[in-house]
Amino acid sequence: MNAAAPIVLESRQLLKQFGGITATDHVDFTLREGARHALIGPNGAGKTTFVNLLSGVLTPTSGSIFLGGRDITKWSARRRAHAGLARTFQINQLFADLTPVETLMLTIAERENAAWSWFRPVGARTDFVDEAVELLTTLGIADIAHLRVGELAYGKQRLLEIAVALAQKPKVLLLDEPAAGVPEHEREQILDVVAALPSSVALILIEHDMHLVFRFAKSISVLVNGAIFVEGAPDEIANDPRVRQVYLGEEVVHV
Amino acid sequence: MTDQTISTKPSPEAIAARSVLLGRARWGWPEIAFWAIAVALYFLMPTKLMLLSEIAILGLLALSIDLVLGFAGIVTLGQGAFFGIGAYTAGLLARYGMGEAPWSDPLLGLLISGGVAAALGFVTSFLVLRGSDLTRLMVTLGVALIVEELVNQMKWLTGGSDGLQGVMPSAVMGVWEFDLYGKTAYVYSLTVLFVLFVIARRIVKSPFGLSLLAIKGNPLRTRAIGMPVNGRLVLIYTIAAFYAGVAGGLVAQTTQFASPDYVAFHRSADALLMLVFGGAGHLYGGLIGSVIFRVMQDVLGNITPQYWQFWLGMMLVLLVLFIRGGIIGLLMKMRGRIMRNRGPSA
User: Fold this and answer.
1) What's B129's domain CATH number?
2) Burial code of B238-271, b = ≥16 C-beta within 10 A, e = fewer?
3) Hey, of A118, A148, A164, which one would you mutate to test binding to chain B, going by the most B CBs within 10 A of its CB?
């Protein structure tokens, strides 16, 4: 990885406390352009809290966050999304009554500030329709474009979850366990999508699945008790005895 | 042809998607039939035109609730406040306009009624942005109770519990006087309902309408995709208040009367009931619900004047327990079953 690439996302001394519990413990974190960075750690290590802080779902107790050099600590989730920060959720957060194509069109319309339009039907923006369909085709789910999202198979919903984030045309993409809960035979499709993400997008991948992590990540941070425990290249992490102890346990890691 | 023009050409899937999406915005024959029947009733039931006019007005009130509840997912028991404000605004304009244009002009009166209601809707919309369904229910109810009490207390303006007398709107567009049979009233109410319905229909089929459904479905994700959720809610709540205000204006003009009954709690509750009866989230639910509600009231009221609400309550319980989605939900389920049966054999 190019260490000289410009920093796109950064957190400085980021702290989040819930009552007496410290969920994020003075985290200094940098993400560079085009990064493929994995965030791993045992259950309850604070991975999702960290992503919620970055994406603006939660407000930090102290510390700051920078996106493209701008301090976004006090920005709403909405403003961060417009500035190029997109995320997916560990548990699907989709619009059950819409269809996939409508979901993506709405996302594109929000990106282009065109969703205040109230007089012309959704389908009138043919450029949006085309872009939405193209994205669905790229992800291999064009066949379900007009079904109700709530009735889709879980694996398809998982892909749509990623598609929504991609429709935002983000500079930074936070993927929160993209393959979580997906049955074995549908996993490969999701892994392929993650592998094919454009290199212009800086990626943070939160994952439990070590195969996925070691397949895609070029750098890894291990989070333990809300703090960064160790950072490095995948082979360094895999061979680090301390990491094995706190996180990987007795399990042997195959790189 | 260069490579570039080929690559920008839409794929067959995209062309198919365009027609699917545009097809959803097209008028279907059940819709055309619905409005054709509404027009035909003018000729078929000349003695019931006042009742039909009232149904059209109640339908408009239910439609306004559908916009906030059926699409944006805001539970409200306060739409009666906007209805009542609209009724008194139109009533006062017609009373002090002395039957002369411009102040007694019905159409101008409706615009002002809607505008005043929308202003109140805009201000109070900020109270329903946050909080659970229960909070929203209580806040909207609270606002409605405040308006109701103000109307009762401001006797010098509203006539208090006696109601507002001497409401004399001038002729519609200077031509059609309001008559005892309700001829003008029905045509006028139905036309206003239709125009506002067409606008509502455009709203819900637009990107803005889609964003409302998304907010109802998942507010967390709407913020994550960069949607100004609060702005959208403020706008639809204000639009719906305008609709309810116009409905109130219509009732004051066509009955030439305004009373505290128009702002009473049961107005909001009845209108919500009509919507649930018909099915929320389809625009037609409120219209169909208002027909059924008012016809039942009339028929059952004639058979058992004391107990018609008993039967109404009974039907409501059965409907909510056994048919989710109201009458429209039932119709759509039946259509789905017919389509499925037809599918494999064809």
Assistant:
1) 1.10.3470
2) bbbbbbbbbbbbbbbbbbbbbbbbbbbeebbebb
3) A118
